[in-house]
């Protein structure tokens, strides 16, 4: 593989992209769209919109982190000189633009949410991530908007409250990531564990209100709990950058399982398994490309 081409792929964080698609599929399932008049063009448009928006966001994250990465992560594509800062910036904004364009094929609400998501991404990358509270909150809002983008397929947001689940969860994961470089973040780990519990209870509470509930979602939720808590405990016991990175990686990838648990409650285990298939893809890609 050409080194420059691989560098651009590295900027996009390929292992994370299936998790963005999982958010969309979960959001669509919540609306009952799959059981009604499913339009595959709308589904694919939102999936690709989410993937491109996410990719653009992580590329611009590295663009705005250029000076910091020269000191802490000099091996990354931009600080290493493999990709010029100007080219990476153009690449990131182009990806965001393509993501927004894909929503034009769906409806006005989807377009507005894509624009709002792109704005939230830029605010995070350019400014808020440097704040210990607003950074994680902003990142969580991006994920919440991504789930709402899936829900927007019907043109309304009746189940908007499900968007709060990824907000809280990604807030927790982002808090953990604050120790990736230097370690020593046990307080963040404790608070994140509390937030993980809140996420699990929140999913149960919201799902139980669904009149045609499929209780097999508990299996997916249990898998999710194991995925996030086992590495989190490891990071707490050995509070080093390498164990913290594992906890962050598990948090990001486990989003697929969290989405599967929500979708299963609405549409049964077959839909849950369909979304869960994205997890092995993310894990496979994570063996070649970095998650964080």
Give the number of domains: 1
Distance from N terminus to C terminus (CA atoms, Å) equals 21 Å
Low-confidence stretches: none
Regarding quaternary structure, what we see is single chain
Under the CATH scheme, which architecture would be assigned? Orthogonal Bundle
Order of helices and strands: HHHHHHHHHHHHHH
CATH superfamily placement: UbiA prenyltransferase
Q: What is the arithmetic mean of pLDDT? A: 93
What does this protein structure show overall?
72% of the residues lie in helices and 0% in strands. It is mainly alpha-helical. It is globular, with a radius of gyration of 18 Å.
SSE blueprint:
Elements: H1 3-11, H2 17-30, H3 40-64, H4 66-72, H5 85-102, H6 108-126, H7 134-151, H8 164-177, H9 186-207, H10 217-237, H11 241-253, H12 255-267, H13 269-276, H14 278-286
Helix pairs in contact: 2-3, 2-7, 2-12, 2-14, 3-5, 3-6, 5-6, 6-7, 7-8, 8-9, 8-11, 9-10, 10-11, 10-12, 12-13
Which features does this protein show?
14 helices; globular; 292 residues; mainly alpha; single chain; Tetracycline Repressor, domain 2
